[in-house]
Protein backbone atom coordinates (compact mmCIF):
# COMPACT_ATOMS: atom_id res chain seq x y z
CA UNK A 1 0.00 0.00 0.00
CA UNK A 2 1.47 3.33 -1.00
CA UNK A 3 1.29 6.40 1.20
CA UNK A 4 -0.83 8.02 -1.50
CA UNK A 5 -3.48 5.30 -1.14
CA UNK A 6 -3.55 5.43 2.65
CA UNK A 7 -6.01 8.02 3.89
CA UNK A 8 -5.97 6.95 7.55
CA UNK A 9 -3.31 5.21 9.60
CA UNK A 10 -3.79 4.10 13.22
CA UNK A 11 -0.54 2.82 14.71
CA UNK A 12 -0.66 0.95 18.05
CA UNK A 13 -2.80 3.35 20.01
CA UNK A 14 -3.34 2.90 23.74
CA UNK A 15 -6.16 4.81 25.46
CA UNK A 16 -7.57 5.23 28.94
CA UNK A 17 -10.61 6.79 30.62
CA UNK A 18 -10.52 8.79 33.85
CA UNK A 19 -6.72 8.59 33.95
CA UNK A 20 -6.82 4.93 34.95
CA UNK A 21 -9.24 2.66 33.09
CA UNK A 22 -7.54 0.94 30.13
CA UNK A 23 -9.68 1.02 26.99
CA UNK A 24 -7.34 0.39 24.05
CA UNK A 25 -4.18 -1.68 24.18
CA UNK A 26 -2.35 -1.28 20.90
CA UNK A 27 -4.99 -0.99 18.17
CA UNK A 28 -3.64 -0.66 14.63
CA UNK A 29 -5.48 -0.35 11.34
CA UNK A 30 -5.38 1.55 8.09
CA UNK A 31 -7.98 2.73 5.61
CA UNK A 32 -7.27 3.33 1.95
CA UNK A 33 -8.92 6.04 -0.11
CA UNK A 34 -12.21 4.77 -1.52
CA UNK A 35 -12.40 1.82 0.87
CA UNK A 36 -15.15 0.72 3.24
CA UNK A 37 -13.67 -0.81 6.39
CA UNK A 38 -15.72 -2.33 9.19
CA UNK A 39 -14.69 -2.62 12.84
CA UNK A 40 -16.24 -5.73 14.34
CA UNK A 41 -16.43 -6.78 17.95
CA UNK A 42 -18.72 -7.37 20.88
CA UNK A 43 -20.14 -4.57 22.98
CA UNK A 44 -17.29 -3.07 25.04
CA UNK A 45 -14.52 -4.41 22.80
CA UNK A 46 -13.17 -0.94 22.05
CA UNK A 47 -14.80 -0.04 18.74
CA UNK A 48 -16.34 3.23 19.91
CA UNK A 49 -13.18 4.29 21.72
CA UNK A 50 -11.18 3.65 18.55
CA UNK A 51 -13.51 5.83 16.48
CA UNK A 52 -13.50 8.61 19.08
CA UNK A 53 -9.71 8.55 19.12
CA UNK A 54 -9.61 8.81 15.32
CA UNK A 55 -11.87 11.88 15.45
CA UNK A 56 -9.89 13.27 18.44
CA UNK A 57 -13.05 13.28 20.55
CA UNK A 58 -11.93 11.15 23.48
CA UNK A 59 -11.47 14.23 25.63
CA UNK A 60 -15.22 14.82 25.65
CA UNK A 61 -15.61 11.51 27.50
CA UNK A 62 -12.74 12.01 29.98
CA UNK A 63 -10.54 9.80 27.86
CA UNK A 64 -7.14 10.21 26.25
CA UNK A 65 -4.70 8.43 23.97
CA UNK A 66 -1.57 7.66 26.00
CA UNK A 67 0.64 6.37 23.19
CA UNK A 68 0.58 5.57 19.51
CA UNK A 69 -0.09 7.70 16.45
CA UNK A 70 -3.07 8.49 14.24
CA UNK A 71 -2.55 10.18 10.86
CA UNK A 72 -5.38 11.38 8.62
CA UNK A 73 -4.28 12.58 5.20
CA UNK A 74 -0.93 13.74 6.58
CA UNK A 75 -2.40 15.39 9.69
CA UNK A 76 -1.34 14.26 13.15
CA UNK A 77 -4.84 13.68 14.53
CA UNK A 78 -3.86 13.88 18.19
CA UNK A 79 -2.43 17.35 17.64
CA UNK A 80 -5.31 18.60 15.47
CA UNK A 81 -8.55 20.09 16.89
CA UNK A 82 -11.71 18.16 15.94
CA UNK A 83 -13.08 21.21 14.10
CA UNK A 84 -9.97 21.33 11.93
CA UNK A 85 -10.33 17.63 11.18
CA UNK A 86 -13.89 18.23 9.97
CA UNK A 87 -12.69 21.01 7.70
CA UNK A 88 -9.97 18.67 6.42
CA UNK A 89 -12.60 16.09 5.45
CA UNK A 90 -13.12 13.80 8.45
CA UNK A 91 -16.73 13.62 9.66
CA UNK A 92 -18.21 11.44 12.41
CA UNK A 93 -21.68 10.06 13.10
CA UNK A 94 -21.64 9.09 16.75
CA UNK A 95 -23.53 6.20 18.30
CA UNK A 96 -27.06 7.00 19.40
CA UNK A 97 -28.37 9.16 16.54
CA UNK A 98 -27.29 12.48 18.04
CA UNK A 99 -29.43 15.28 16.60
CA UNK A 100 -30.30 18.74 17.84
CA UNK A 101 -33.82 17.80 18.89
CA UNK A 102 -35.20 21.34 19.13
CA UNK A 103 -33.92 22.29 15.67
CA UNK A 104 -35.85 21.19 12.64
CA UNK A 105 -34.45 18.65 10.19
CA UNK A 106 -33.14 21.23 7.74
CA UNK A 107 -31.50 23.30 10.46
CA UNK A 108 -29.70 20.16 11.66
CA UNK A 109 -28.39 19.58 8.16
CA UNK A 110 -27.21 23.16 7.82
CA UNK A 111 -25.16 22.76 11.01
CA UNK A 112 -23.04 20.24 9.13
CA UNK A 113 -22.34 22.73 6.36
CA UNK A 114 -21.42 25.43 8.85
CA UNK A 115 -18.90 23.10 10.49
CA UNK A 116 -17.08 22.96 7.17
CA UNK A 117 -17.31 26.70 6.68
CA UNK A 118 -19.59 26.48 3.65
CA UNK A 119 -20.65 29.57 1.78
CA UNK A 120 -24.35 30.38 1.79
CA UNK A 121 -24.40 29.90 -1.98
CA UNK A 122 -23.43 26.22 -1.51
CA UNK A 123 -26.20 25.34 0.93
CA UNK A 124 -29.00 24.93 -1.59
CA UNK A 125 -27.12 22.39 -3.72
CA UNK A 126 -25.91 20.48 -0.66
CA UNK A 127 -29.41 20.28 0.81
CA UNK A 128 -30.83 19.13 -2.50
CA UNK A 129 -28.25 16.34 -2.58
CA UNK A 130 -29.13 15.15 0.94
CA UNK A 131 -32.85 15.12 0.18
CA UNK A 132 -32.12 13.09 -2.95
CA UNK A 133 -30.18 10.58 -0.85
CA UNK A 134 -32.83 10.46 1.89
CA UNK A 135 -36.16 11.37 0.24
CA UNK A 136 -38.18 10.76 3.40
CA UNK A 137 -36.50 13.78 5.02
CA UNK A 138 -37.83 16.26 2.48
CA UNK A 139 -41.43 16.39 3.74
CA UNK A 140 -40.10 16.50 7.32
CA UNK A 141 -37.58 19.30 6.74
CA UNK A 142 -39.46 21.84 8.89
CA UNK A 143 -40.32 19.39 11.68
CA UNK A 144 -38.26 19.31 14.88
CA UNK A 145 -35.70 16.52 14.53
CA UNK A 146 -36.61 15.19 17.96
CA UNK A 147 -40.13 14.43 16.72
CA UNK A 148 -39.01 12.24 13.81
CA UNK A 149 -38.59 8.46 13.91
CA UNK A 150 -35.38 6.72 14.94
CA UNK A 151 -34.59 5.88 11.33
CA UNK A 152 -35.17 9.46 10.23
CA UNK A 153 -32.95 10.76 13.03
CA UNK A 154 -30.17 8.46 11.84
CA UNK A 155 -30.63 9.83 8.32
CA UNK A 156 -30.44 13.36 9.70
CA UNK A 157 -27.23 12.54 11.56
CA UNK A 158 -25.65 10.99 8.48
CA UNK A 159 -26.94 13.78 6.25
CA UNK A 160 -25.51 16.40 8.60
CA UNK A 161 -22.09 14.72 8.38
CA UNK A 162 -22.36 14.56 4.58
CA UNK A 163 -23.11 18.28 4.46
CA UNK A 164 -19.50 18.83 5.51
CA UNK A 165 -18.43 17.11 2.27
CA UNK A 166 -16.18 14.57 3.98
CA UNK A 167 -13.62 12.33 2.35
CA UNK A 168 -13.70 9.96 5.33
CA UNK A 169 -17.03 9.24 7.01
CA UNK A 170 -16.90 7.52 10.41
CA UNK A 171 -20.03 5.74 11.62
CA UNK A 172 -20.56 4.20 15.04
CA UNK A 173 -23.19 1.42 15.12
CA UNK A 174 -25.36 2.87 12.32
CA UNK A 175 -27.80 -0.07 12.47
CA UNK A 176 -28.42 0.01 16.22
CA UNK A 177 -32.09 -0.01 17.18
CA UNK A 178 -33.40 0.33 13.63
CA UNK A 179 -35.82 -1.86 11.70
CA UNK A 180 -34.16 -4.15 9.11
CA UNK A 181 -35.76 -2.36 6.16
CA UNK A 182 -34.44 1.01 7.42
CA UNK A 183 -30.98 -0.46 7.98
CA UNK A 184 -30.93 -1.87 4.46
CA UNK A 185 -31.90 1.50 2.97
CA UNK A 186 -29.20 3.36 4.91
CA UNK A 187 -26.49 0.88 4.00
CA UNK A 188 -27.52 0.87 0.34
CA UNK A 189 -27.19 4.65 0.36
CA UNK A 190 -23.76 4.45 1.96
CA UNK A 191 -22.62 1.89 -0.59
CA UNK A 192 -23.83 4.10 -3.43
CA UNK A 193 -21.90 7.05 -1.98
CA UNK A 194 -18.79 4.90 -1.82
CA UNK A 195 -19.12 3.51 -5.33
CA UNK A 196 -20.36 6.60 -7.12
CA UNK A 197 -18.64 9.40 -5.20
CA UNK A 198 -15.59 7.56 -3.87
CA UNK A 199 -16.49 8.30 -0.24
CA UNK A 200 -14.21 6.45 2.17
CA UNK A 201 -16.07 4.89 5.10
CA UNK A 202 -14.99 3.47 8.45
CA UNK A 203 -17.82 1.97 10.47
CA UNK A 204 -18.07 0.15 13.77
CA UNK A 205 -20.78 -2.52 13.82
CA UNK A 206 -21.79 -5.18 16.29
CA UNK A 207 -23.96 -6.69 13.55
CA UNK A 208 -21.29 -8.61 11.65
CA UNK A 209 -23.73 -9.84 9.01
CA UNK A 210 -24.74 -6.39 7.78
CA UNK A 211 -21.21 -4.97 8.11
CA UNK A 212 -19.55 -7.71 6.06
CA UNK A 213 -22.21 -7.45 3.42
CA UNK A 214 -21.23 -3.88 2.57
CA UNK A 215 -17.57 -3.56 3.63
CA UNK A 216 -14.42 -4.19 1.58
CA UNK A 217 -12.15 -4.87 4.56
CA UNK A 218 -12.78 -5.64 8.22
CA UNK A 219 -10.86 -5.55 11.48
CA UNK A 220 -11.93 -7.49 14.56
CA UNK A 221 -11.32 -5.83 17.92
CA UNK A 222 -11.42 -7.64 21.24
CA UNK A 223 -10.47 -6.37 24.69
CA UNK A 224 -9.05 -3.19 23.22
CA UNK A 225 -6.77 -4.92 20.71
CA UNK A 226 -7.09 -5.67 17.01
CA UNK A 227 -6.92 -9.45 16.70
CA UNK A 228 -7.75 -10.08 13.05
CA UNK A 229 -7.90 -8.17 9.76
CA UNK A 230 -8.88 -9.50 6.36
CA UNK A 231 -11.11 -8.80 3.39
CA UNK A 232 -14.81 -8.77 4.19
CA UNK A 233 -15.33 -11.51 1.62
CA UNK A 234 -12.78 -13.79 3.31
CA UNK A 235 -14.31 -13.19 6.72
CA UNK A 236 -17.88 -13.73 5.64
CA UNK A 237 -17.03 -16.97 3.82
CA UNK A 238 -14.68 -18.38 6.45
CA UNK A 239 -15.12 -19.42 10.05
CA UNK A 240 -13.41 -16.42 11.68
CA UNK A 241 -16.40 -14.27 12.47
CA UNK A 242 -18.58 -17.23 13.37
CA UNK A 243 -15.96 -18.43 15.84
CA UNK A 244 -15.49 -14.91 17.20
CA UNK A 245 -19.18 -14.59 18.00
CA UNK A 246 -19.67 -18.16 19.16
CA UNK A 247 -16.73 -18.13 21.61
CA UNK A 248 -14.42 -20.58 19.80
CA UNK A 249 -10.72 -20.29 18.92
CA UNK A 250 -9.72 -18.67 15.63
CA UNK A 251 -6.49 -19.45 13.80
CA UNK A 252 -4.67 -16.77 15.82
CA UNK A 253 -5.16 -18.94 18.90
CA UNK A 254 -7.00 -16.27 20.89
CA UNK A 255 -9.78 -17.51 23.12
CA UNK A 256 -13.17 -15.79 22.80
CA UNK A 257 -15.40 -15.86 25.83
CA UNK A 258 -19.06 -15.69 24.96
CA UNK A 259 -20.84 -13.09 27.07
CA UNK A 260 -24.45 -12.11 27.62
CA UNK A 261 -24.21 -9.24 25.13
CA UNK A 262 -22.91 -11.37 22.29
CA UNK A 263 -25.27 -12.90 19.72
CA UNK A 264 -26.59 -16.37 20.43
CA UNK A 265 -25.17 -19.33 18.50
CA UNK A 266 -28.34 -19.76 16.51
CA UNK A 267 -28.74 -16.12 15.46
CA UNK A 268 -25.07 -15.67 14.56
CA UNK A 269 -24.98 -18.87 12.56
CA UNK A 270 -28.18 -18.04 10.72
CA UNK A 271 -26.93 -14.55 9.81
CA UNK A 272 -23.61 -15.86 8.49
CA UNK A 273 -25.30 -18.57 6.45
CA UNK A 274 -27.62 -15.98 4.95
CA UNK A 275 -24.88 -13.56 3.82
CA UNK A 276 -22.64 -16.39 2.58
CA UNK A 277 -25.45 -17.52 0.29
CA UNK A 278 -25.91 -14.11 -1.31
Itemize the secondary structure elements and their pairings.
Elements: E1 6-17, E2 21-32, E3 36-40, H1 47-54, E4 63-72, E5 75-76, H2 82-88, E6 90-93, H3 105-116, H4 120-133, H5 150-162, E7 168-172, H6 180-197, E8 200-205, H7 208-214, E9 217-222, E10 225-231, H8 232-237, H9 240-246, H10 265-277
Helix pairs in contact: 3-5, 7-10, 9-10
Q: What labels describe this entry?
A:
278 residues, alpha/beta, Rossmann fold, six-stranded mixed beta sheet, 38% helix, globular, disordered C terminus
- Which strand order does the major sheet show? 6-7-8-3-9-10
Whole-number tally of structural domains: 2
**What's the CATH architecture of the largest domain?**
3-Layer(aba) Sandwich
What structural class do the secondary elements suggest?
Answer: alpha/beta
In short:
The protein is an alpha/beta fold and 278 residues long. The protein folds into two domains: 6-89 and 166-277, Rossmann fold, CATH 3.40.50.300; 100-165, no CATH class.
Any overview of this molecule?
By secondary structure, the chain is α/β, with parallel strands linked by helices. It folds into two domains: 6-89 and 166-277, Rossmann fold; 100-165, no CATH class. It contains ten helices and ten strands. It has helices spanning 47-54, 82-88, 105-116, 120-133, 150-162, 180-197, 208-214, 232-237, 240-246, 265-277, and strands at residues 6-17, 21-32, 36-40, 63-72, 75-76, 90-93, 168-172, 200-205, 217-222, 225-231. Strands 6-7-8-3-9-10 form a six-stranded mixed sheet, with helices on both faces. Strand 4 and strand 5 form a beta hairpin. The chain is globular and about 45 Å long. The two termini are 30 Å apart. 41% of the residues are buried. The model is unreliable at 246-278 (pLDDT under 50).
Amino acid sequence: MSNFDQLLSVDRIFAIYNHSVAALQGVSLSVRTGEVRALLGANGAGKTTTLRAIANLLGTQRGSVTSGRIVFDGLDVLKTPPSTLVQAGLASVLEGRHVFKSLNVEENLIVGALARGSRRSELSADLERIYALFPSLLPKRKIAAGLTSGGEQQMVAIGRALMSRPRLLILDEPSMGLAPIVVKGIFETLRALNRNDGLTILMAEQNAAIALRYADQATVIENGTDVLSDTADALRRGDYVKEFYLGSNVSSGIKREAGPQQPSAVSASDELQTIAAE
